[in-house]
Specification:
The chain is mostly helical and 225 residues long. It has helices at residues 4-23, 26-49, 55-78, 90-108, 120-136, 139-144, 148-162, 180-223, and strands at 114-116, 167-169. It is 75% helix and 3% strand.
Length: 225
């Protein structure tokens, strides 16, 4: 039974992604993807707490991530495209391919407490802020994404980050003996919470930018250990 518990959360993650697509709504889809993000964290935590893992669980997790953090955000990204032609499908298609390549590569890598490249949930976390900004009519972000160049470049940049070899820290590192492994995730979490009270729409993308910056600092500090 212990082995089934994490998989239940993984399946709920997958269903959240499916219904985010079915909803066809930026706000509802964003809430469902946010739920998927939380479930993705919980299934990993439960698997570690219960000390259970399996090849099936690993593959199921990747399939769920592909739906919730690959297909779902790509579909919602189309909804506010500045293009009226087939061009609007190209950037989301690049994102889907990038997520698939990232997840496939992740499954071939040995288990590690760090990420090689940006995780797909982190890329989705960035897009969530854009979706919410469009729903609530944030003038600054809406105006920026009326620019066709930015609409095209965002998925390309996220795809490059997902498939890079840049080392990024994970919440899994909080169990290690390196004190900085506790400090860096905590700082990112506090940064996000602070931004939520200031402007929750920018909290998501700015936290991802902050996470990338902190990962760069983390790598620099870790090399000097």
């Amino acid at each position: 039974m212990k082995k089934i518990v994490p998989s239940i959360f993984t399946c709920l993650n997958l269903l959240c992604g499916f219904f985010a697509i079915v909803s066809g709504d930026l706000f509802v889809g964003s809430i469902l993807m946010l739920a998927a993000l939380l479930l993705d964290v919980l299934d990993g935590m439960l698997a570690r707490m219960l000390n259970v893992s399996s090849d099936m669980g690993k593959e199921l997790d990747s399939l769920a991530d592909m739906i919730s953090f690959g297909l779902a955000p790509a579909y919602l990204y189309i909804l506010f495209s500045p293009f009226d032609s087939w061009v609007k499908y190209v950037p989301p298609a690049i994102f889907v391919l990038g997520a698939a390549l990232r997840l496939a590569r992740f499954n071939t890598l040995p288990s590690s407490k760090h990420f090689k490249g940006m995780p797909t949930p982190t890329a989705t976390f960035f897009l969530l802020g854009i979706f919410l900004a469009h729903h609530y009519g944030d003038n600054f972000i809406v105006d920026q994404y009326e620019n066709p160049a930015l609409y095209i470049l965002t998925p390309i940049l996220l795809t490059m980050l997902m498939n890079s070899k840049f080392t990024m820290f994970s919440i899994k590192t909080i169990n290690s003996g390196f004190k900085m492994d506790v400090l860096f995730p905590l700082i990112c979490f506090l940064f996000f919470i602070t931004l939520l009270f200031i402007d929750f729409q920018i909290a998501f993308p700015l936290t991802v930018v902050f996470y990338l910056t902190m990962s760069f600092i983390y790598n620099f500090v870790a090399k000097r250990r």
